Protein 1
Amino acid sequence: MYVFKPQGVCPAEIHFALENNAIKDVRMVGGGCIGNSQLIAGLLEGMDVDKALPFLRGIVCRNGTSCPDQLGKALLMAQNGEIAEADPITTGIEEAGELLKLAVISEAMGDSEGIERVYALSKAEGAQALYSLGNLTRGGGDGADDAAVELAVKKGIRVVQGPIDRMIALGRFGDHGAEVSVKQANRDRLLITPLIRMFNLGDRHGVAFHGGFIQDLPGFSDFGPYASEILSVCYLSDYLRDESVFPAMETMLKHFSASIVLFGTTGEWKHVRLGEVDMINVGSLRSGEFYRYALIEWTKGGVVVQFRSTPVEN
């Protein structure tokens, strides 16, 4: 997959793939005319680059260029080796400045009421940011996913992709119809949501991700950023459930880039401190008749982790 950042047009990015010089999976991300973008993608699917270029280059819409013109530029650059295929294991770099207290949820599954509730409670308790560790959406096709994505944007929630989010973003959610029920703009938002986020809590550096599904994605490297954290937590320790391997994990801590590791996946709530590293498994947002979240605070004496709950209001 190539990711091209066009100039002078509405979309922030143009995504496409090339297979034996044939164009695949064209997508205008982050703006533009959705209908025209779908038409362009449909007409170009499987077409040879050399055949397509004369139809694309030179079309003017605004600023002396257009989406087709920029796509033509991107295709030519890819063909000539001037741009490389993008690494799909995307990371999000947080703004400058450190946090002292943050809140964390996971597996929100389109529950906007729960997200709103935890956001308000954690703010009242002094949390400076709310992280969502994947599966913000659930693919229900009832508008809940759109509402959850838009709420996350509105509130500035720091989201990482989970496997459901990724399938919806790519339009591959099986027979559930989520690929057509979720608004294109929100699918685009999910698509550019990072798989991994980094943060600073006091003098500690942290990493947040959903779980081991990242390892199965094209582009994952056992030697890439935060790979040691992902492999140790998700596979070596089976998400901290196999305590017999903790001594072996301690010997691997020297390879960690982060001293706080946040992850979701299992639905369980657990905090393990090995050496100087705090590993925190955050469970599902809703558990029975309660909403649950984690509060994590930096103090001079170390990181303090609290698992909180609040009743669901019927």
Protein 2
Amino acid sequence: MAAPPLARTALGAARLCPVSAMNIKSFDCRALTCAWPMLNGSPAYRYRSSSYSEEAAVNRTPVVFIHGAWLHALSWESWAERFASRGFLAFTPGWPGEPLTVGEMRQSSETIADVGLDLLTDHYAKIASSFDVAPVIIGHSVGGLIAQHLIGANIGQAAVAIAPAPVNGITLPVPPGGLWLPSHAEGGPTAASDPLVSLSAAQFQHFFANTVSEEESARLFDRYAVPAPRRLLADLGCAGSARSARAVADVGNADRGPLLLISGQEDLLVPDAATRAVYKQYGDSLAVTDLKQFADRAHSLIIDNGWRFVADYVLGWLGEHGLRAHP
């Protein structure tokens, strides 16, 4: 298999190499040849600064990024580079069976057709538990739900849930146009019997990137958008499906690490109201729980032109709570 290209960075400071989460404690990128380590069938990428050394990496704080539905793991590239430039060890492991590139995933996305919330949660729990230093867990969409579940189970030292799929019985509104279960009759690219749900470029702009220009939305779609498993959407309770028992978080755990919830106030997929409802569920917990609402931002807030404002807010929040690259 050919090596993936290095992720781009405006500073030219980030380098990218895949790493098996099973070997994170002892992995040495200098020993990597043409074999790309995999975890449960998915690659795990590590981003590091150009001044990185294996010796200096000892005891640095890892950050595990978990992507959501309709995005590839590459969607975290800018965030991972930003965090790596601040000294964190940034990892963006894909879902089980997720192909290495967006193009491959679009052509062979059946490898993720059976991915549900149980499998995803266990996958990332295994990754997050494999570090010597407990990681910060940052998730978007369903990744935000998983981040909450893990921090509630005392996995990781802090968590950030961005536009998170709701937990504990809070439901998502059904967006117009039948987005969750599109059919040819509704103008979507996916038949109702297909195990994968794809978005057209027009749907992506309307529901996902509704606050950016058509031109920017098209660029984001081309670079990051991939199909999502219908099984996973059903596990989240979409289209009236019975929600998975794993769509929960322990909101009463007083011993967990800090949690930051983030919403976009123009988000049509996970509305601000849903994230505020989740925040209220943590009201009786003695553990740190914060909410940040970004005005005029949609579900694309981690990938669109304003991503750095969100990423830098998260970095600042981590610093306020003593969570730095060098513990």
Protein 3
Amino acid sequence: MRVKSVLWAVSVVLWASGPPAQTQQTTPDLDTAYEEGRTITADQGPVEIQGAAGLAVEGPLDCGTPGEVTGSLTISSPDAPWPVLEILDTINGAGLTFFSDAGLFQGGLFSDPSTGGGLTLDLGRNDLAPGIFVDGNFAGTESTRLDIHGPERSITLDTSVGGDASVVLPDGAISAEEILDEAGVASAGTGNSTVNLVGGLQILLSRSLTAPSDGHVLLMGTAQATFTHDENVSTVCEFAVTDSPGDSLERQEADLVHATGGTDQATNDYPITTHALIPVSAGSHLFYFTGYKATGGTVTMSDLQLTLAFVPTTYGTIGSLSDNPAEELEASQERPEGPPIVGSQPSLRRDLVDTRNPTTQDTRRPLR
């Protein structure tokens, strides 16, 4: 039986379209027509099958004739004067279309018009605007593209292209915790407070940092050191940034500050800067800014700051102090006459002397 059906909430309208035929009275008994294999031609209007029981079809239901007549199946609503669902043939193949009671397009599932076939899914977010569009064979590439639209922003996932263009997200859509591979910082400071070095190793500042992945942490410690010492008294201090304060003075990160009082009592101010690059694994790590006074008078630390910067990616070789050829160059050169130059050593160690007193002797010595 070739039929085109219209189903109502309380009635089902079933009709068939075919070649024009002479108007004739149809058999009133559908059972008899079916049993006899007769064709019911309804060219005066659709055949109505009424009643709460509706129509039950056990077996195939054909709409249209392959190669001859286009068939469709529509479902209507008592709240709308037009169909709200239609299954029909399109120029590219099958289509399933949804409409609102107001007759406005709501979405559908259609054969993809691109070469190679596939399906497209179109879901509206209201009566007029698109919401989700899935193109199973985007531009005939046999790659799928997903577009999600909202009133203020959209998202695109496109497998037909590679790299950054394959995903388009709204600004700020991904947080640092979700990326898990981004540079991040942490810091600690003393503000206006001061710290006195009393002798021995001291932890001046500490700060923890949670690395989202393997990488390196760049540590930077800065401060101002005020040395107050008696005449002819040397004050020697060492500073370091480290993840292990117990052995910070045995590592290359230690910086040496060596001040000599000269013939008179003296007060000297020195800027302190020390840094280190430490490999880390994913997880929480604690880092320190340490100070060590070996000898001398009073040392007061102020403006202390410890800064941590996590870097996930290495773009070159990471060398150590022993890899620095400048050390060998310095050792091979004669030291010029006159007062030592502050910070002249091209290494992480730094010897600072009181250059304001012409009687100051060059008391530089290696850290170890």
